[in-house]
């Protein structure tokens, strides 16, 4: 009897039953908003990382934040416990772009708003923010906007310079701008925004660059796609 009572209080008490529909609705709203935020990041973001892979985290992050806030908002003890747990949590993946951090904060903010029972305000705020992002993207868009993120790694010996890589890109018929540059005594790594018209240009660049250094490593990330 005692066990049955404990199970009843744990899974089927009056407070839980009453709040369950609202809780499920909150999770659903958070999931939709997290998904929309991920799609906006893929469409309007400018990070050099793989935005599609990174954006998949937003839905779970938003829903998880909603769950946590829903649980702790009515209890000071739970809130303090949550702060203690988060103080020892460590993130092993480094955030390389400020934009990634901003979108993570936005995803957490959406989860906080929905979990705190402010779904309408959260939806309105997110619509306004996404609208501003769309307007900024349209204003900044140019006819020659690059379509690929290109990263070139050149180890020693035979290490290439950024000037040599840009020269080969230009000679291959590509337009490029240097976005990130890291160099050590043993390695050079440079990231570019490039405008490649077709696959032939990429193959020409690859061939000419390997003529200068056979150890070079080339990596491309899709932004607007490449025509075959």
Average pLDDT, rounded to a whole number, is 76
**What is the CA-CA span between the terminal residues?**
71 Å
The total count of strands amounts to: 4
Q: Which range best describes the helical content: under 10%, 10-25%, 25-40%, 40-55%, 55-70% or over 70%?
A: 55-70%
Task: List unreliable stretches of 5+ residues.
Answer: none
Strand content: 5-15%
Overall geometry: elongated
Number of helices: 8
The helix-and-strand class reads: alpha+beta
Characterize the biggest β-sheet. 4 strands, antiparallel
SSE string, helices as H and strands as E: HHHHHHEHEEHE
Radius of gyration: 24 Å
Q: Any idea how many domains?
A: 2
Across the major sheet, the strand order is 2-3-1-4
